[in-house]
Amino acid sequence: MPANPPDLRPDLARARVSEAARPGQPKIGMVSLGCPKALVDSERILTRLRAEGYAISPDYSGAGAVIVNTCGFLDSAKAESLEAIGEAMQSNGRVIVTGCLGAEPEYITGAHPKVLAVTGPHQYEAVLDAVHRAVPPSPDPFVDLLPASGVSLTPRHYSYLKISEGCNHKCKFCIIPAMRGRLASRPAHAVIREAEKLVDAGVQELLVISQDTSAYGLDIRYAEERGHRAHITDLARDLGSLGAWVRLHYVYPYPHVRELIPLMADGLVLPYLDVPFQHGSPSVLRRMARPAAAARTLDEIAAWRDICPDITLRSTFIVGFPGETEAEFQELLDWLDEAQLDRVGCFQYENVAGATSADLPDHVPDEVKAERWARFMEKAQAISAAKLQAKVGQRLEAIVDEVDADGIATCRTKGDAPEIDGNLFLDEGTEGLVPGRIVTAEVDEASEYDLYGRVV
């Protein structure tokens, strides 16, 4: 079992640009680390560069410079970002660093003093300026045109749709507000317009992301403009009218989330809710500065399931938070037993520079964190296995992600997000299937995290 599954990281993504570079066209490479929100930032940077006449290089050797979009949330992520920067330096030598770790430029230059530039998260103009200095543009106005759908770092049949930036919460383990600022929502009409372009370009699944999706629009007073209101319920309804699958991520469990569930029951958005519960012990949640009404959350989960029995609930948790006792950890296990969540990830607590949790007393020893993580994942795995076993014999809709040379199709059901959840593998009736096709499959077998079946 790997150390902290799932990673929540579609990282090391490469740009999907079909046209070859013209003679003399400057090329830029990109490595995108971290969460899907960072991936969207990478796509925006590459789209701007492509419009300015740059070609996107699929490897280090063919690039005039390489942009590394970093993750800086955990110390382990920082170390991996430094490793990626080092690999780019060794393979190319001309590296521009951006992203969350860019908020700590001395940390980066201390390890890699020869990087060309360091910029912080979502500082698009600063990244472009650094590229211009390193690799001057050489546009051809008759050839270089902005692609209608921009540059994508995901398969063409699904796309992340960022609806806001920043966060207003003050969770003690998190430094995202310090790195990315307070909540800043995009106008609803701009989100819908982007979604329309994506669907027109062939996207079959829209994955709605932000730091706090359910707070969308709060900072702009849920403004209505051009027929679209900036409230998550209205936005979800509008997105659901476009004909693509709509999947909601990072939904903080506010009471008004219940208003989204009828949209799932009616088929407008996928019956899937990604909610960061973090723990099940009220005392630990209070120390985290999270909502501490764990019992009320269980009531809310029951209400969601009453409205939409097919809903899939996924969440992530932290074990070993400072001061966590064995009794509090047992409260988490008991809470998970009662909640019966479908998809679960767990992280062992890490100190993060700048997070107030680092100053809390009674830090849990690493060996205790590892032992609790293993016990947590054992229980979560058993719940997942039982839930998937109950699907054997059912017919489910699934979207095709890939078909290999042997005709095995890797698919996802409505309850599976790309990169972080399981898959449905099909080995019969797959002739003619292509990525993005939505099929009906009968489930024949199940494992702890995956399903197996055939097209019907």
From TrEMBL:
Catalytic activity: L-aspartate(89)-[ribosomal protein uS12]-hydrogen + (sulfur carrier)-SH + AH2 + 2 S-adenosyl-L-methionine = 3-methylsulfanyl-L-aspartate(89)-[ribosomal protein uS12]-hydrogen + (sulfur carrier)-H + 5'-deoxyadenosine + L-methionine + A + S-adenosyl-L-homocysteine + 2 H(+)
UniProt key word Iron-sulfur: yes
Keyword list, A-Z: 4Fe-4S, Cytoplasm, Iron, Iron-sulfur, Metal-binding, Ribonucleoprotein, Ribosomal protein, S-adenosyl-L-methionine, Transferase
Gene3D superfamilies on file: Methylthiotransferase, N-terminal domain, Nucleic acid-binding proteins, tm_1862 like domain
GO biological process: tRNA modification
Keyword Nucleus on entry: no
InterPro entries cross-referenced by the UniProt entry: Elp3/MiaA/NifB-like_rSAM, Methylthiotransferase, Methylthiotransferase_N, Methylthiotransferase_N_sf, NA-bd_OB-fold, Ribosomal_uS12_MeSTrfase_RimO, rSAM, rSAM_horseshoe
Principal place of residence: cytoplasm
Molecular function terms, GO-annotated: 4 iron, 4 sulfur cluster binding; aspartic acid methylthiotransferase activity; metal ion binding; protein methylthiotransferase activity
Sequence ranges assigned to domain TRAM in this UniProt record: 389-456
Cell compartments where the protein resides: Cytoplasm
Cofactor note: Binds 2 [4Fe-4S] clusters. One cluster is coordinated with 3 cysteines and an exchangeable S-adenosyl-L-methionine.
Enzyme nomenclature, EC number: 2.8.4.4
CDD domains per UniProt: Radical_SAM (cd01335)
Binding site for [4Fe-4S] cluster 1: 35, 71, 100
Domain MTTase N-terminal, first and last residues per copy: 26-136
Segments forming domain Radical SAM core: 153-386
Classification via PANTHER family: RIBOSOMAL PROTEIN S12 METHYLTHIOTRANSFERASE RIMO (PTHR43837), RIBOSOMAL PROTEIN US12 METHYLTHIOTRANSFERASE RIMO (PTHR43837:SF1)
Family in the record: Belongs to the methylthiotransferase family. RimO subfamily.
Protein name: Ribosomal protein uS12 methylthiotransferase RimO
Organism this protein belongs to: Pseudoroseicyclus tamaricis
